[in-house]
Design brief:
The chain has about 525 residues and is of the alpha/beta class. The chain contains 15 helices and 16 strands. It has helices at about 15-35, 35-55, 60-80, 85-100, 110-130, 175-190, 285-295, 325-355, 360-365, 375-380, 395-400, 420-425, 435-445, 490-495, 530; strands at about 150-155, 160-165, 195-200, 205-210, 230-235, 245-250, 255, 260-265, 275, 300-305, 320-325, 365-370, 405-410, 430, 460-465, 470-475. The strands form four sheets. It has an eight-stranded mixed sheet with strand order 11-10-12-13-9-14-15-16, sandwiched between helices. The radius of gyration is 35 Å and the shape is elongated.
């Protein structure tokens, strides 16, 4: 039985697409065939324009003699043998010459100044990439950069990209040898910028790329993410395979930006976050940004060890179960979080054994945000109480299976006071501030691929999710709306994300007084007296 052809609507190439491609091919072919005609027509238009401008510049007393001379020339051409044909050929030739493409061709090679910079960089690499026993050295004192540098780009007279070869005997597997070459290239290519080094050990190639500064005009907002996804900040366009629309700048201009997305939940490989940084680098703003995004799909519990009221704007909001900053309140809150995690585990286990769906209260995401837990540990030790960080052990160990995520932020000089359970189970890491590369490697577990930034704004640092690469990071601006120094635009942006009554317009938003910290909801958890 013969097969019947599929209907045209089910074909992989609809007729409309084929017709569009056919029309585009016909237009390209017609353009190629009619290119001489188009060139001559463009030249004649330029000739007419030139003649019109010349006639306008000619004084009136000279226009009559000019017309008489032109008429005499026409009469002579008509009387000459083959005169009209020669005149037409001359006009067409001049039109073709005037209608030619006058786009200047790019220079074939680097200029004199660029050649000098490349040669100086080549000579500086000779002591590091040469060997006296090499019979045909790629890098020699009397050599040239042509064979070593295969590609390069300059922007404004400064080196923007360089692709170089190095000999196979160079020890590119040793961190010290690579660090020496990277330090030299950083110094010779120009300080004040960030550079990324991509080593290709298999083919003995190294690519140096000057990175543009990360955008600092993105404010906290509703990002286009799925449930369980949190935007920690934004990075380089070629570092991630995803972009999200954002509103940036004072006028809220829309554009696409590449985000660093942290995924939580049962299928996440790094369900808990640890953010470290120096004072004033933006770790509290990062937790505040995470809290604003978490309230869209779940509940939030906040423990503020600094006790400065940085999270007062979240107190009493729908979805915020508690905002505690005292040792007693923090211990009660974290103890409830541990019992809640155990309750959810039992509910999930029973639902699976009975073959029924899990209850909604056991599936709703719960976020435990702890800022400066080492300060609470010191206060608890002074009062003879147990360390509150130990209460995070159960949510950190078993929270992934029941949609409980923990995010901890602290200062970098207090890492020795962090509990072992916090360090061991926080696989998503963020480090903010101006730090030495060895400090970044100690926190993230891998060396950064870029040189340190010359200027480090608040919220600038590096992020690593699990075993992924180290990414540059710029946290969205999420200031405290109750701070008097917060700009009206940023205050309005943050208040607009808070659940509850919408705030007034930006120009009318005052700096409201911070309300009293909210206590734990009695219908959800036990009271502090029952827990102590």
């Amino acid at each position: 039985m013969a097969r019947r052809p599929l209907p045209s609507i089910l074909s992989s190439r609809p007729a409309l697409v084929r017709g569009r491609d056919l029309a585009r091919s016909a237009a390209d072919g017609a353009t190629d065939v009619l290119h001489p005609v188009l060139t001559i027509a463009r030249g004649m238009r330029r000739q007419v324009a030139w003649a019109g401008s010349w006639w306008g510049r000619t004084p009136k007393d000279r226009r009559g003699p000019a017309l008489l001379l032109a008429a005499a020339g026409v009469v002579v051409l008509v009387m000459m043998p083959y005169g009209p044909l020669l005149a037409v050929a001359a006009v067409l030739a001049s039109a073709a010459w005037m209608g030619r493409d006058r786009t200047a061709s790019a220079p074939a090679g680097p200029g004199q100044a660029e050649t000098a910079r490349l040669q100086a960089l080549y000579e500086a690499l000779v002591p590091y990439l040469s060997d006296p026993a090499d019979p045909a050295p790629l890098y020699a004192y009397d050599g040239s950069w042509d064979k070593a540098f295969t590609a390069y780009d300059f922007e404004g007279g400064r080196l923007a990209r360089l692709h170089l070869r190095y000999p196979a005997y160079f020890t590119d597997g040793e961190a010290d040898a690579r660090a020496r070459v990277e330090q030299l290239l950083h110094a010779k290519a120009g300080r004040g910028r960030e550079y990324r080094f991509d080593w290709n050990e298999e083919e003995n190639h190294l690519t140096l790329t000057a990175l543009p500064p990360l955008a600092t005009d993105i404010v906290a907002q509703r990002f286009v993410t799925a449930p369980g996804e949190t935007v920690l900040g934004f990075t380089d366009a070629d570092a991630v395979a995803r972009t999200v629309p954002v509103a940036a700048g004072e006028c809220g201009e829309g554009r696409d930006a590449p985000p660093v997305v942290w995924r939580t939940g049962a299928r996440s490989t790094e369900p808990h976050l640890l953010a470290l940084g120096q004072p004033g680098t933006g770790t509290t703003s990062l937790l505040r940004c995470v809290a604003l995004q978490s309230l869209v799909h779940g509940d939030v519990v906040i423990v503020d060890g600094s006790g400065t009221g940085e999270y007062a704007c979240l107190a009493g909001r729908p979805g915020v179960l508690a905002v505690e900053d005292s040792v007693l309140g923090a211990a009660a809150t974290l103890e409830w979080a541990a019992h809640e995690t155990e309750r959810r585990l039992v509910a999930v286990n029973r639902a699976r054994q009975e073959g029924r769906p899990v209850e909604e209260d056991a599936r709703r995401p719960l976020w435990i945000l702890v800022d400066r837990p080492t300060s609470l540990s010191q206060l608890a030790l002074a009062e003879g109480r147990p360390d509150p960080q130990l209460l995070l052990d159960v949510p950190l160990r078993h929270g992934r299976a029941v949609n409980v995520a923990v995010a901890v932020a602290d200062q970098l000089d207090a890492t020795e006071s962090l509990a072992p359970c916090v360090v061991a189970h926080t696989r998503a890491r963020v480090v903010l501030g101006r730090l030495a590369p060895e400090h970044v490697e100690a926190v993230l577990g891998a060396a950064q691929r870029t040189t340190p930034a010359a200027e480090v704004p608040p919220g600038r640092g590096y992020a690593r999710l699990g075993t992924g690469p180290v990414l540059r990071l710029q946290v969205p601006a999420t200031p405290d709306p109750y701070d008097e120094e917060t700009s009206p635009a940023h205050r309005a942006a943050v208040l607009a994300l808070l659940p509850g009554t919408p705030p007034p317009p930006a120009e009318e938003v005052p700096a409201p007084a911070a309300p009293e910290p909210a206590s734990l909801r009695k219908d959800v958890i036990r009271t502090v007296a029952d827990l102590t």
